[in-house]
Amino acid sequence: MIDIQILLNYDNLSGVVTLNLTIMAMIYCRECGKMISDQAHSCPHCGCVVSNPNRSERDWLTALLLCFFLGTLGIHSFYAGKNAIGVVQLLTLGGCGIWTLIDFIMIVCGSYHDGDGKLLSNR
Ligand SMILES: [Zn+2]
């Protein structure tokens, strides 16, 4: 769900009105049930560690390093759970490096998905 927070601050001294508009996706904490940001790593209410259902368990930095050093062998695709793509990349040497380069850019931009279609988590 999407939560829109509008914060209106009026500064009496300068007469300036500041408007802060924050749009973020909200999820429910599985421990205490309160609403928290989907960007939060732990619940601010009860302190439990949040596992985001939209985020992969696989680590972004690991995929980045695997793609950089072993990308032409498709190792990052195996790591991300995309075994079929990994085999093809292994046989084609990462699409002669072009495929690997595209994957590398996508990982850097944070738009690389794992085999379950989830974004890699950036811890
Ligand atoms: Zn909580």
Question: Your description of this structure?
Answer:
This protein is 33% helix and 28% strand. The model has no long low-confidence stretch (mean pLDDT 84). A hairpin with a 6-residue loop joins β2 (16-28) and β3 (35-37). It has 123 residues and is of the alpha+beta class. It has a 3-stranded antiparallel sheet, with no helix packed on it. It has a two-stranded parallel ribbon with strand order 4-5. It starts with a strand and ends with a strand. The protein folds into 2 domains: 2-53, no CATH class; 56-121, no CATH class. It is elongated. The relative contact order is 0.14. It has 5 helices and 5 strands; from the N terminus they run ββββαααααβ. Bound molecules: zinc ion. Zinc ion (ZN) is lined by residues 29, 31-32, 34, 43, 45-46, 48.
Strand content: 25-35%
Termini separation (Å)? 23 Å
Q: Characterize the quaternary organization of these chains.
A: single chain
Unreliable spans are none
Strand order of the largest sheet: 1-2-3
Q: What Rg is obtained from the alpha carbons, in whole angstroms?
A: 20 Å
Mean pLDDT across the residues is: 84
Structural class by helix and strand composition: alpha+beta
Q: SSE order in H/E notation?
A: EEEEHHHHHE
Enumerate the distinct ligands.
zinc ion
Q: What is the strand tally? A: 5
Helix content: 25-40%
Structural shape: elongated
Number of helices: 5
Our count of domains comes out at 2
